[in-house]
Amino acid sequence: MKATPGAINTYIFFKLPSCFFTGVRVKTIDDSCCVTSVKHRWINQNPFKSLFWAVQGMAAELATGALVMVCIAQSGVKVSMLVVTNNARFDKKATGRITFTCEDGQLIKDTIAKAIQTKQGQSCWAKAIGKDSHGSVVSEFNFQWTLKVKS
Question: Rounded to an integer, what distance in angstroms lies between the CA atom of residue 27 and that of residue 22?
Answer without folding.
Answer: 15
